[in-house]
Amino acid sequence: MRYTMMHGLELHTTITLDNISEHRGELLDAFAHVVEDHFFDQYAPSDSIGWKFHDEEEATALRTIVTLLLRIEDEVFGGEEAELAHHLWPQVVAAAHKALDLMRANDTHTIPGTSATYSDRPPARFLDMRADTEAGLEVLGTVSPENTGGRQGSVRNAIARVVEDNHYNESDPSESIGVKLHDEREATAMRTLVALVLRVSVDVETQDRVRDEHEYLTHPLWPEVAAAARATLRLMRMND
Protein backbone atom coordinates (compact mmCIF):
# COMPACT_ATOMS: atom_id res chain seq x y z
CA MET A 1 0.00 0.00 0.00
CA ARG A 2 2.70 2.48 1.01
CA TYR A 3 4.85 1.68 -2.00
CA THR A 4 1.94 1.76 -4.44
CA MET A 5 1.17 5.22 -3.14
CA MET A 6 4.81 6.25 -3.49
CA HIS A 7 4.79 5.04 -7.09
CA GLY A 8 1.76 7.23 -7.72
CA LEU A 9 3.58 10.21 -6.25
CA GLU A 10 6.58 9.51 -8.46
CA LEU A 11 4.38 9.56 -11.57
CA HIS A 12 3.06 12.97 -10.56
CA THR A 13 6.64 14.26 -10.51
CA THR A 14 7.69 12.79 -13.87
CA ILE A 15 4.73 13.04 -16.27
CA THR A 16 4.63 16.33 -18.20
CA LEU A 17 3.02 17.76 -21.33
CA ASP A 18 6.21 16.89 -23.19
CA ASN A 19 6.11 13.17 -22.37
CA ILE A 20 2.40 12.50 -21.88
CA SER A 21 2.24 10.50 -25.13
CA GLU A 22 4.64 7.98 -23.57
CA HIS A 23 2.61 7.76 -20.35
CA ARG A 24 -0.96 7.74 -21.63
CA GLY A 25 -3.28 6.50 -18.89
CA GLU A 26 -0.60 6.46 -16.19
CA LEU A 27 -1.71 9.79 -14.79
CA LEU A 28 -5.15 8.32 -14.14
CA ASP A 29 -3.54 5.38 -12.34
CA ALA A 30 -1.40 7.77 -10.33
CA PHE A 31 -4.49 9.73 -9.29
CA ALA A 32 -6.09 6.50 -8.07
CA HIS A 33 -2.98 5.49 -6.11
CA VAL A 34 -2.69 8.86 -4.38
CA VAL A 35 -6.11 10.50 -4.18
CA GLU A 36 -8.88 7.94 -4.30
CA ASP A 37 -7.10 5.74 -1.80
CA HIS A 38 -6.87 8.65 0.64
CA PHE A 39 -10.00 10.67 -0.09
CA PHE A 40 -11.61 9.81 3.23
CA ASP A 41 -8.47 10.86 5.07
CA GLN A 42 -8.39 14.29 3.46
CA TYR A 43 -9.72 15.94 6.60
CA ALA A 44 -8.31 13.38 9.03
CA PRO A 45 -4.98 12.21 7.59
CA SER A 46 -3.91 10.89 10.98
CA ASP A 47 -6.29 7.95 10.42
CA SER A 48 -3.69 6.46 8.07
CA ILE A 49 -0.74 6.74 10.47
CA GLY A 50 0.55 3.24 11.17
CA TRP A 51 -1.11 2.01 8.00
CA LYS A 52 0.53 3.88 5.15
CA PHE A 53 2.11 6.81 6.94
CA HIS A 54 4.79 6.76 9.60
CA ASP A 55 3.82 10.06 11.19
CA GLU A 56 1.70 13.22 11.09
CA GLU A 57 4.17 15.03 8.82
CA GLU A 58 3.72 12.42 6.08
CA ALA A 59 -0.05 12.47 6.47
CA THR A 60 -0.18 16.25 6.20
CA ALA A 61 2.03 16.20 3.09
CA LEU A 62 -0.40 13.79 1.44
CA ARG A 63 -3.36 15.95 2.41
CA THR A 64 -1.73 18.87 0.60
CA ILE A 65 -1.38 17.02 -2.69
CA VAL A 66 -4.85 15.45 -2.39
CA THR A 67 -6.41 18.88 -1.92
CA LEU A 68 -4.61 20.25 -4.98
CA LEU A 69 -5.53 17.32 -7.19
CA LEU A 70 -9.19 17.44 -6.18
CA ARG A 71 -9.30 21.15 -7.02
CA ILE A 72 -7.88 20.45 -10.46
CA GLU A 73 -10.32 17.59 -10.99
CA ASP A 74 -13.23 19.92 -10.18
CA GLU A 75 -12.06 22.52 -12.70
CA VAL A 76 -10.80 20.38 -15.59
CA PHE A 77 -12.86 18.34 -18.03
CA GLY A 78 -10.42 18.02 -20.93
CA GLY A 79 -8.36 14.97 -20.07
CA GLU A 80 -4.77 14.52 -18.94
CA GLU A 81 -3.32 17.32 -21.08
CA ALA A 82 -5.72 19.80 -19.50
CA GLU A 83 -4.71 18.66 -16.02
CA LEU A 84 -1.01 19.08 -16.83
CA ALA A 85 -1.68 22.55 -18.24
CA HIS A 86 -3.67 23.67 -15.18
CA HIS A 87 -2.12 26.60 -13.33
CA LEU A 88 -1.99 24.54 -10.10
CA TRP A 89 -0.03 21.67 -11.63
CA PRO A 90 3.41 23.05 -10.66
CA GLN A 91 2.18 23.03 -7.05
CA VAL A 92 1.11 19.40 -7.47
CA VAL A 93 4.58 18.46 -8.70
CA ALA A 94 6.23 20.31 -5.81
CA ALA A 95 3.89 18.70 -3.26
CA ALA A 96 4.49 15.24 -4.73
CA HIS A 97 8.26 15.76 -4.57
CA LYS A 98 8.01 16.86 -0.93
CA ALA A 99 5.79 13.93 0.12
CA LEU A 100 7.91 11.40 -1.77
CA ASP A 101 11.19 12.71 -0.37
CA LEU A 102 9.76 12.66 3.15
CA MET A 103 8.48 9.09 2.87
CA ARG A 104 11.73 7.82 1.37
CA ALA A 105 13.73 9.49 4.13
CA ASN A 106 11.51 7.98 6.82
CA ASP A 107 11.90 4.52 5.34
CA THR A 108 15.64 4.66 6.01
CA HIS A 109 15.43 6.00 9.57
CA THR A 110 16.45 3.65 12.35
CA ILE A 111 13.78 2.89 14.94
CA PRO A 112 14.99 4.21 18.32
CA GLY A 113 16.48 1.47 20.47
CA THR A 114 16.79 -1.02 17.61
CA SER A 115 18.96 -1.73 14.60
CA ALA A 116 15.94 -1.95 12.27
CA THR A 117 14.60 0.72 9.95
CA TYR A 118 10.97 1.69 9.69
CA SER A 119 10.77 -0.12 6.35
CA ASP A 120 11.66 -3.35 8.20
CA ARG A 121 8.72 -3.04 10.59
CA PRO A 122 5.19 -4.07 9.57
CA PRO A 123 2.84 -1.08 9.93
CA ALA A 124 0.36 -1.28 12.80
CA ARG A 125 -2.54 -1.53 10.38
CA PHE A 126 -0.94 -4.61 8.78
CA LEU A 127 -0.81 -6.28 12.18
CA ASP A 128 -4.42 -5.32 13.00
CA MET A 129 -5.74 -6.72 9.71
CA ARG A 130 -3.65 -9.84 10.14
CA ALA A 131 -4.95 -10.42 13.68
CA ASP A 132 -8.52 -10.06 12.44
CA THR A 133 -7.88 -12.67 9.74
CA GLU A 134 -6.28 -15.03 12.25
CA ALA A 135 -9.31 -14.71 14.55
CA GLY A 136 -11.57 -15.75 11.69
CA LEU A 137 -9.31 -18.68 10.82
CA GLU A 138 -9.45 -19.90 14.42
CA VAL A 139 -13.25 -20.04 14.29
CA LEU A 140 -13.31 -21.85 10.94
CA GLY A 141 -10.76 -24.34 12.23
CA THR A 142 -12.55 -25.19 15.49
CA VAL A 143 -16.30 -24.69 15.16
CA SER A 144 -18.40 -27.79 14.46
CA PRO A 145 -22.04 -28.93 14.67
CA GLU A 146 -21.31 -30.14 18.22
CA ASN A 147 -19.74 -26.97 19.63
CA THR A 148 -21.69 -24.05 18.18
CA GLY A 149 -23.65 -23.39 21.35
CA GLY A 150 -23.59 -19.69 22.13
CA ARG A 151 -21.72 -18.94 18.90
CA GLN A 152 -24.61 -18.29 16.52
CA GLY A 153 -23.35 -16.08 13.73
CA SER A 154 -19.73 -17.00 14.32
CA VAL A 155 -19.37 -18.94 11.06
CA ARG A 156 -20.75 -16.13 8.91
CA ASN A 157 -18.59 -13.59 10.75
CA ALA A 158 -15.50 -15.74 10.25
CA ILE A 159 -16.26 -16.14 6.55
CA ALA A 160 -16.59 -12.37 6.26
CA ARG A 161 -13.24 -11.86 8.00
CA VAL A 162 -11.33 -14.46 6.05
CA VAL A 163 -13.00 -15.20 2.74
CA GLU A 164 -15.00 -12.18 1.64
CA ASP A 165 -12.10 -9.90 2.48
CA ASN A 166 -9.77 -12.04 0.36
CA HIS A 167 -12.18 -13.07 -2.40
CA TYR A 168 -10.65 -10.81 -5.00
CA ASN A 169 -7.26 -12.40 -4.39
CA GLU A 170 -8.57 -15.90 -5.07
CA SER A 171 -6.80 -16.11 -8.43
CA ASP A 172 -3.84 -13.98 -7.42
CA PRO A 173 -3.22 -14.36 -3.68
CA SER A 174 0.06 -12.47 -3.99
CA GLU A 175 -1.97 -9.24 -4.03
CA SER A 176 -2.42 -9.61 -0.25
CA ILE A 177 1.32 -9.92 0.44
CA GLY A 178 2.31 -6.84 2.40
CA VAL A 179 -1.34 -6.06 3.13
CA LYS A 180 -1.98 -8.82 5.63
CA LEU A 181 0.05 -11.80 4.43
CA HIS A 182 3.81 -12.15 4.80
CA ASP A 183 4.72 -14.33 1.84
CA GLU A 184 3.64 -16.54 -1.05
CA ARG A 185 3.21 -19.61 1.17
CA GLU A 186 0.63 -17.83 3.28
CA ALA A 187 -1.09 -16.49 0.17
CA THR A 188 -1.31 -19.95 -1.39
CA ALA A 189 -2.70 -21.44 1.83
CA MET A 190 -5.32 -18.70 1.92
CA ARG A 191 -6.27 -19.35 -1.70
CA THR A 192 -6.84 -23.04 -0.92
CA LEU A 193 -9.12 -22.13 1.99
CA VAL A 194 -11.04 -19.49 0.03
CA ALA A 195 -11.69 -21.91 -2.83
CA LEU A 196 -13.10 -24.52 -0.43
CA VAL A 197 -15.34 -22.08 1.42
CA LEU A 198 -16.69 -20.68 -1.83
CA ARG A 199 -17.58 -24.20 -2.97
CA VAL A 200 -19.48 -24.78 0.27
CA SER A 201 -21.19 -21.39 0.01
CA VAL A 202 -22.41 -22.10 -3.53
CA ASP A 203 -24.15 -25.25 -2.27
CA VAL A 204 -25.55 -23.72 0.92
CA GLU A 205 -26.69 -20.30 -0.19
CA THR A 206 -29.90 -20.01 -2.16
CA GLN A 207 -32.10 -17.06 -2.96
CA ASP A 208 -35.04 -16.08 -0.72
CA ARG A 209 -33.80 -18.16 2.20
CA VAL A 210 -31.88 -17.27 5.34
CA ARG A 211 -28.68 -19.25 5.60
CA ASP A 212 -28.49 -21.74 8.45
CA GLU A 213 -24.96 -22.09 9.83
CA HIS A 214 -25.63 -25.76 10.54
CA GLU A 215 -25.75 -26.30 6.77
CA TYR A 216 -22.18 -25.04 6.43
CA LEU A 217 -20.93 -27.24 9.24
CA THR A 218 -22.61 -30.42 7.96
CA HIS A 219 -21.52 -29.93 4.35
CA PRO A 220 -19.30 -32.81 3.10
CA LEU A 221 -16.45 -30.38 2.40
CA TRP A 222 -16.48 -28.71 5.82
CA PRO A 223 -13.80 -31.00 7.34
CA GLU A 224 -11.52 -29.86 4.49
CA VAL A 225 -12.39 -26.24 5.25
CA ALA A 226 -11.51 -26.72 8.92
CA ALA A 227 -8.24 -28.47 8.08
CA ALA A 228 -7.26 -25.74 5.60
CA ALA A 229 -8.10 -23.04 8.15
CA ARG A 230 -5.95 -24.70 10.81
CA ALA A 231 -3.05 -25.14 8.37
CA THR A 232 -3.22 -21.49 7.31
CA LEU A 233 -3.44 -20.30 10.92
CA ARG A 234 -0.42 -22.40 11.96
CA LEU A 235 1.62 -20.97 9.10
CA MET A 236 0.67 -17.38 9.89
CA ARG A 237 1.41 -17.78 13.60
CA MET A 238 4.80 -19.32 12.83
CA ASN A 239 5.61 -16.32 10.64
CA ASP A 240 4.44 -13.89 13.32
Descriptive labels:
single chain; mainly alpha; 2 domains; 240 residues; 10 helices
Give the helices and strands, then pairings.
Blueprint: H1 2-14, H2 26-36, H3 56-75, H4 80-85, H5 89-107, H6 124-142, H7 154-164, H8 184-204, H9 213-217, H10 222-239
Give a short summary of the structure.
InterPro entries: DUF7945 (IPR057705). This protein is mostly helical.
Describe this structure in words.
- The structure is a single chain.
- The chain has 240 residues and is mainly alpha-helical.
- Helix content is 60%, strand content 0%.
- The chain has two domains: 2-120, no CATH class; 124-239.
- The chain has ten helices and no strands.
- The protein starts with a helix and ends with a helix.
From N to C, what is the helix and strand string?
HHHHHHHHHH
Q: What is the total tally of β strands?
A: 0
Structural class: mainly alpha
Number of helices: 10
Please tell me how large the radius of gyration is: 22 Å
The total domain count is: 2
Shape: elongated
